[in-house]
């Protein structure tokens, strides 16, 4: 009999329906149940979780109000989690440019990230990404960035799992305000990263018809997580 997995999508605010459609559209040998998570009871059923894009401060506030913030922090310590855009902010250890009053984070990835890091001039854009480890690696992935965060720093301690770079933006696509004179390979161009059981994308794979990132998360993180 094939194994069964329950993957949750945090459904407090943001693009959770699009993630649901992308995950339900995967063809896998294993059976994947996709559940929308709004409460601690929903979260308890899950083997893995996707935190969608939206507005990170609002998602954190709603999580606190619905009593799911602390259970989420516990979940992140032992289960696979993928954060997209606002979800990537929540998965980070430190954030710059948080709203007044601060930003609750879940942690999980040893990075520092900047909210709305492309600046007010760059609301949203699309760009072909160089990807590493996805199916059809020669086919670039169209990254959809909407008021996206920017990775500022990778800061794993000596005991943290290493961070791997899964997708990069070409340095010459950086807006002048972010570009470095030597076009060096710096964190700002890293747009998909993995560390231990966690995965983040600063863009929105769920807003394209290409579900290779959803397939990647399930095959690399969710299926191997269950003996
Ligand atoms: N598309 C997004 O998820 C945007 C993230 C948003 N700027 C935030 O700070 O949370």
UniProtKB/TrEMBL annotation:
SUPFAM superfamilies given for it? Class I glutamine amidotransferase-like
GO BP field? pyridoxal phosphate biosynthetic process; pyridoxine metabolic process
Quote the Pfam families the UniProt record gives: SNO (PF01174)
InterPro entries in alphabetical order = Class_I_gatase-like, PdxT/SNO, PdxT/SNO_CS
**UniProt entry tagged with the keyword Hydrolase:** yes
Which of the seven top EC classes does this enzyme belong to?
hydrolase
Keyword Lyase recorded? yes
Q: Which residues of this protein are catalytic?
A: 85 (nucleophile), 204 (charge relay system), 206 (charge relay system)
| An example Gene Ontology CC term for this record | glutaminase complex
Spell out where the chain crosses the membrane.
Answer: none
Q: Which PROSITE patterns match?
A: GATASE_TYPE_1, PDXT_SNO_1, PDXT_SNO_2
Residues given in the record as L-glutamine binding sites: 54-56, 115, 146-147
- Which PANTHER family does this UniProt record tie to the protein? PYRIDOXAL 5'-PHOSPHATE SYNTHASE SUBUNIT SNO, PYRIDOXAL 5'-PHOSPHATE SYNTHASE SUBUNIT SNO1-RELATED
The record's similarity note reads: Belongs to the glutaminase PdxT/SNO family.
Q: What is this protein called?
A: glutaminase
According to its UniProt entry, this protein's organism is Agrocybe pediades
